[in-house]
Amino acid sequence: MRTVIGIDLGSTTTKAVVLGEDGRTLGRGLTNTRSNYDVACAIAKSEALVATRFALFRERLEESRAKDAPIPEVMAEIERCFRLEQHLGQLNALRDEMETAAADGAGTAAGAGSSSGRARSSTPASRRRRRSSPRG
After folding, report:
1. Closest CA to 47 of 98, 2, 13, 1
2. How does pLDDT run across 4-14, given as a tens digit for each residue?
3. Domain for residue 121, yes or no?
4. Per-residue DSSP letters for 45-85?
5. Which domain holds residue 95?
6. Whole-prediction pTM value?
7. Structural domain count of the chain
8. Least confident of 3-7, 43-47, 89-93, 132-136
9. Over the stretch 103-120, which tens digit does the pLDDT of each residue have?
10. Which long-range contacts (CB under 8 A, 24 or more apart) does 94-102 make?
C-alpha cells in the first residue's frame, strides 16, 4: 500500500497525518514542539506511522475474525504493550540527549572565558556540526 505523510511543524505543536492512496486518513501523530524541530518531527511522524500500522492491522483482523473473537480487547492489550515499549524507548532517547546536552554544556561552561562570546545553538544538528568541525 502506498501512503503519503504530511507534517505541520508549528511553534507550539507538531502534527503528522498519514493518508492512503484513496485519500483516507490512516493515522495521526501529535507532539509538543518544545523548540526542538528535528525531534518534534520525528516523534509526530513516528506516532502517525504507529497509528497507521495499528489501524491497518485492526482492519485486517476485523475482516478475517471469527464471530466470537474478542478483537477489541486483544487489540487494546497489544496496543497498550506496544505503547509502553515505545514510551520507554523514547525516555531512553531523551535521557541520552539530555546527557549529551549536559556534557556539551559543561564543555561550554569551561570555555566560557573564550574571546568569541557567541552563544552556541544546542540542537542535535548543531552538536553534530560542532563535533565534526575542526577546532583551532
Report:
1. 13
2. 999 999 999 99
3. no
4. HHHHHHHHHHHHHHHHHHHH--TT--HHHHHHHHHHHHHHH
5. 3-106
6. 0.58
7. 1
8. 132-136
9. 988 766 555 544 444 444
10. 97/39, 97/124, 100/127, 101/127
